[in-house]
């Protein structure tokens, strides 16, 4: 989204049906500032991590947490159910 220095790159987070997604640990990277060069956003019911500027090249790992109204294990009782959900999401785009 955007172009040049204002460009943002979005990466889908696997938190289906989450009502809250949060960044759980500070990055300690001089190129990454929350809300300025990275953040979390919800689009069309899915959650995304976005990065921009020099933060795009940061090797730091993001630790993301998800909160659900219904327990994740109740919504997706086994791996096949979650993989089917994710595959349907990919086909939709």
Automatic annotation (TrEMBL):
The source's superkingdom equals Eukaryota
Sequence ranges assigned to domain DUF7808 in this UniProt record? 4-85
State what protein this is by name.
Bm726
| Record organism | Brugia malayi (Filarial nematode worm)
Its taxonomic placement starts with:
Eukaryota, Metazoa, Ecdysozoa, Nematoda, Chromadorea
């Amino acid at each position: 989204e955007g172009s040049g220095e204002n460009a943002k790159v979005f990466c889908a987070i696997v938190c289906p049906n989450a009502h809250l997604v949060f960044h759980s640990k500070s990055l300690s990277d001089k190129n990454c500032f929350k809300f300025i060069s990275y953040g979390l956003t919800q689009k069309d019911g899915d959650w995304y991590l976005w990065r921009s500027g020099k933060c795009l090249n940061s090797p730091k790992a993001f630790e993301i947490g998800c909160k659900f109204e219904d327990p994740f294990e109740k919504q997706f009782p086994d791996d096949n159910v979650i993989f089917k959900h994710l595959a349907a999401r990919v086909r939709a785009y």
